[in-house]
Amino acid sequence: MVDRLTLSMRASHVLALALVLVALALAIIGAAAGDTFYLRLGTEALIFAGLALSVDLLLGFSGALSLGQALYFGIGAYTSTVVLMKVPSFWLAMGAAFATSFVASVIGGLIANRVRGVYFALITFGMAQVVAKIVYNTRELGASDGMIGVPVIDIGFGPFSVSAGSPAGFFVIVLATIMILYGITAYLLDTPFGRVLTAIKANEKRVPFLGYSVRQARMACYILAGVIAGLSGALYPMLRGFVSPELMFFMTSGNAVISVILGGVGTLIGAVYGSILLVVLKSFIGSWTEHHLIVIGLLFIASVMFMPKGIIGLVRPLIERMLLRRNGLAAKTPTDIEPGLSPTAEGARQ
């Protein structure tokens, strides 16, 4: 039986595949043309897409708005930098970033998940500001100047290796990493765990009557989002060669929230598309005028007013109907099939 969530996920997978194919084609063209700037810009957009993905996991599926998700992005970036400056190993840096972001998200989750709604948003914002200020004043971490001099590393895959200094090669590495994070998240959301999260968003008070723990589900979601942000942040110093406390500031978290809204809340792949769009727009508009934030703000307002479901929210229904026809369900529309929240979420809503 195909329910609405499963159908939506399949449509998102189609859009994810399209993104990968287009990105690989552009990487080949860029490598052939000897381009560096646009490949680096695309790599940065994909790195911040991982942060947006973690925000969409919380906001789109559990209904929790985090205004401090950059905290875990920054923790991953700083951990990666410290490791790389001592032992230039990609896998060790990613492993250390996973461990630190996991521990930090457990602590943060225990604090933030005690409240709901706007208080949750404010607490996540406050935690990020506190840690950013600590890093800003810690001389061992470069203080306000950040840490520079991250070495260019070779990323080994058995007998093969790819240099982080190769624009096309590192672009493909980052693309693969973000798509793996997307795939893991999408898989988990298409399990009973994902149904419980959707039920929590629909009606949190009903979920315990169905035999599920709201606290455990919200905590697991928060930790998963923190780890995704941390692993994405670990890639940043490999690209730019430095880190700074600004990675933990509110603007970084705010840009991730804007990316999710532009791409489509609760679409998952929309966070990736939204991040790419935002980073590219900021780069192009910033080259024309120093008032690019005004344009970004107007774009955000227009998106909320005229595209409340985001870019992917406009495209995905078309793909859903295509998938229905392909599976011999053309007589049904996405709203006619099994009520999408699954029996668990549907029972919670009533």
From TrEMBL:
Transmembrane regions listed in the UniProt entry: 57-78, 90-112, 118-136, 168-189, 219-236, 256-281, 293-315
Tree of life domain: Bacteria
Tagged with keyword Cell wall biogenesis/degradation: no
Gene Ontology cellular-component terms listed: plasma membrane
Cellular localization per UniProt: Cell membrane
Gene Ontology MF: a single term: branched-chain amino acid transmembrane transporter activity
CDD domains: TM_PBP1_LivM_like (cd06581)
Bilayer topology term: Multi-pass membrane protein
Listed InterPro entries: ABC_transp_permease, LivM-like
Keywords: Cell membrane, Membrane, Transmembrane, Transmembrane helix
Any one Pfam family match given in the protein's UniProt record, by short name: BPD_transp_2
PANTHER family, A to Z: ABC TRANSPORTER ATP-BINDING PROTEIN, HIGH-AFFINITY BRANCHED-CHAIN AMINO ACID TRANSPORT SYSTEM PERMEASE
Record protein name field: Branched-chain amino acid ABC transporter permease
